[in-house]
Amino acid sequence: MEVINTQISKENYYNKKGVTLQIDDKQVQANCYGLTLNKEEVRNIVVAILNKLQQDPQTLNIILTKIMIINPQTEITEQNLIEDIQKMITKVQDLEDLQGIAIEVYEVQGNLVQMVIKTEDEYTYKISYETNENAIRIVFDCINPNTSISTRNITFKNLELAKQTSEGKTDTVVILAFESSNGEIYKISYRDIVDSDTVNQSITNTKAINISDSDTTYFAIKLNSVTKAEQEVTIDELTSQNSAIINTYTPEDTTELLQRIVARLQTLYTKKLQVINELGQLQEQTQIIEQQENEIVNEGQTNTVINTITNIL
Known about the structure:
Strands 1-2-3-4-5-6-7-8-9-10-11 form an eleven-stranded antiparallel sheet. With 313 residues, the protein is α+β, with helices and mostly antiparallel strands. The chain is built from five helices and eleven strands. The N and C termini lie far apart (90 Å). The chain has a domain at 132-230. Helix 2 (39-54) runs antiparallel to helix 4.
């Protein structure tokens, strides 16, 4: 965030209120917050972020850890990673076809509804969001300004992701849409439904893949699987072949650890008992002091009464 703040001027930001958006078949009024960057500003930000990354050992360590998880056999070191980042910096600095971009986010009552990214060659990428308590839907649109497309070319149009959860049932949908040169829309859809039945103690998983246009389904496949809990579950005796050791503690080590815990608890109990005794003594001393103060007050009140009676007589 510090890098972005130092590299981007306030003049690059702008906002617009009451912008009308067309999302599917609905029109919504939203507030727009935007940022524009020319290609040199993009270059400077990317280089600054990479330079900052080179000097951040904590982030480098996280990246190395992720690489080790993905490929445990790799022998990459932190120095190798720094050298690779330096190569990326040099490549970005020498890049000629870098483009400026404009990024706009639209919100309604604090909720993100759409993000738009525009490049200098007029490509537009839109990401629309729709969420409620149990569902989320994301649609990614790519608008290609080139109209001269060959007859055998198919252009990616949009990607739609949707997930809904209700009463133990999760429905996930992924739809890829493509547009042919004659304007026909083709869709590849994948649907995954997981239905948990608590009564029968079973889980039904349905997977379906479809390739279709508006009129015809060209390919369809559907797979069902049911996992059901059984009353009796048999477990094979664990051996060195079908199990793994999760700790190396021997019975003697466990006994020693238990003895240390008991000793520690006894020490804590002794210290706690000592504190309780000290608090008890302090309370007794406080009561004695309060009693003495009350006696002094009572004695003073008695002398006052006697003096008053004497004066009257």
